[in-house]
Specification:
By secondary structure, the chain is an alpha/beta fold. It is built from eight helices and twelve strands. Helix content is 34%, strand content 29%. The structure holds adenosine-5'-diphosphate and magnesium ion.
Amino acid sequence: MLEIRDLHATITTADGQTREILRGIDLSVPDGEIHAVMGPNGAGKSTLAHVLSGRDGYEVTAGSAMLDEQDLLAMAPEERAAAGVFLAFQYPVELPGVGNAHFLRTALNAQRRARGEAELDAVQFLKLARAEIKRLAMRDDMLKRQVNVGFSGGEKKRNEVLQMGLLRPRVAVLDETDSGLDIDALRIVAEGVNALRAPRFSALVITHYQRLLDYIVPDRVHVLAAGRIVRSGGPELARLLEAEGYAAIEQAA
Ligand SMILES: Nc1ncnc2c1ncn2[C@@H]1O[C@H](COP(=O)(O)OP(=O)(O)O)[C@@H](O)[C@H]1O
Ligand SMILES: [Mg+2]
């Protein structure tokens, strides 16, 4: 269970001002559930994802984020990853000169080492990776290319989902994984996430639009506005937002 309690976080802007972006987030995602976080631009959705993953540049000023009994906020980013926290980025980075297969195997083996599991050799890894690639209807040459270099927007997102399929996280946070995807790629990504549904897997799917939630049916939907969860409901809440926009909810909050 991922349990976020009264989480506050600030950033320091380029001109030295401190701004509170997260203003008391309360959110629990039980094992086996997929929750959506929706909200207007600038609400703090990406900030929440970054703070959970331990990215630099944010200061947590109050609150907690626990994965089972583990205090995520007290852990280094790589410790959070080893504990099973996975963040799929809104803008995946390109790594020129780094082969994708090497990159993915290094990431997987780092986590296996941290958990005291045996590392996979190149042959074992390729077998696993090819199976995941097939499951995600991706092209085999994805592994031979440099990480995200020259990948289309859709290929980058699929590569994130491939990485997730290999790492099998406890909690996946997908930050606008749907942006830049055409409808076929959207379905493949959604199916990739759906296929990970398991008793020990949970996900926070962050999205601005309802579209992705036609394919990944969330157990709960939360609306984030101005740094707080202002409303939670079932999948019907996403459709309501699509129809009515965020304005009414923001006003009510
Ligand atoms: N590094 C930064 N410097 C200044 N402002 C930032 C920085 N990162 C985020 N913000 C501000 O924090 C707010 C929330 O941003 P973000 O979490 O990216 O929102 P969302 O993902 O919901 O669109 C926005 O007003 C944004 O301008
Ligand atoms: Mg964002």
